[in-house]
Specification:
The chain is mainly α. The chain is built from 14 helices and no strands. It has one domain. It is globular.
Length: 309
């Protein structure tokens, strides 16, 4: 069991590091004014769908029952369609700083939803862990000079909140569906459904792009968004979802502002100090505290032992 947990944590660690890198990459694409948020969202969905279906040709084929196809359609609405539309559109209207702050709300949303729908216990240990992690992430972001000249909009921030909420709903409500199928099977159907639903809304933006005018650097950034920040990362997330509780999975959102800070330091636009070191420490302490909290299954097992004694 310990080895499985480590596998789940490793998968989420890599996925959320890539997600952290994705925020500045997406902002670079928008700064070029060559690709709109609507078009980038389509490229992300359609590109990932194509890659997942190609990958499925080289993996063990899984039969999906008709009832689960409908559930996969619903899961695609929350886990891909709404999540991706609101995230990229929100990020186009706000700063990476604000987007990072809002990302720290995801564990709280997931904890509340898991308590309501999955009857996961909201223990003091779990609440304290979420609070410590959020404090570290907020401390790190609020002391960053990145995007100091950018103005964030209320609409952009609200869309980022919706993005986090939709993914929290996906993590919580579709836990059993996630356990039944491999990552490739889940994602090939979810991204296909999301792309088909989104096509009527985005085709005009995609058709009007002057593809010859897009620079090679922007194409490389779009390729990063599609291949690493979507295909590869979404391949890893179900691994963590199968092995870890929804609240723990959502705690990895705190890595995004940490990664953004490291990138800023690496390219020389920020510096490392005691504040950043302390903030990063708080983030990882928060993740550890929530990870070590007891699940409903563990608490039920303890009650059973006490009754037998």
């Amino acid at each position: 069991m310990q080895d499985k947990n480590l596998k789940g944590h490793a998968a989420l660690l890599v996925a959320y590091i890539i997600f952290g890198l994705n925020i500045p990459v997406v902002k670079v694409v928008f700064s070029s004014s060559e690709v709109s948020a609507i078009a980038l969202t389509f490229f992300r969905m359609a590109g990932a769908a194509l890659l997942f279906w190609i990958t499925s040709l080289f993996t063990k084929r899984e039969a999906v029952v008709k009832r689960d196809l409908f559930l996969l359609f619903l899961a695609s609405l929350f886990g891909v369609l709404i999540n991706q539309i609101t995230f990229i559109e929100g990020l186009s209207q706000t700063s990476p700083v604000d987007a990072g702050i809002i990302a720290t709300m995801a564990p709280l949303m997931t904890m509340i939803l898991a308590a309501f729908f999955l009857k996961e216990p909201v223990t003091w240990k779990k609440v304290i862990g979420v609070f410590i992690g959020a404090t570290g992430a907020l401390l790190l972001i609020l002391n960053s000079n990145e995007s100091a000249n950018e103005e964030a909009s209320i609409a952009g921030n609200f869309l980022c909140v919706l993005s986090g909420l939709s993914f929290a709903i996906y993590l919580t409500l579709f836990k059993q569906l996630i356990l039944r199928y491999s990552a490739v099977t889940l994602m090939k159907w979810m991204f296909l459904f999301a792309t088909v639903c989104y096509l009527p809304l985005c085709w005009q933006d995609v058709a009007l792009i002057n593809y010859a005018a897009i620079s090679f650097a922007v194409y490389l950034h779009i390729a990063f968004v599609v291949t690493l920040a979507t295909f590869f990362s979404y391949m890893l997330i179900p691994v963590g979802q199968k092995l870890l509780r929804p609240t723990i999975v959502s705690m990895y959102n705190y890595l995004q502002p940490v990664v953004s800070s490291i990138v800023a330091i690496a390219i020389g636009i920020d510096s490392f100090g005691w504040v950043k070191g302390g903030a990063a420490t708080l983030v990882f302490i928060g993740v550890y505290v929530v990870t070590s909290s007891k699940s409903r299954a563990q608490m039920d097992a303890e009650k059973t032992v006490l009754k037998l004694e």
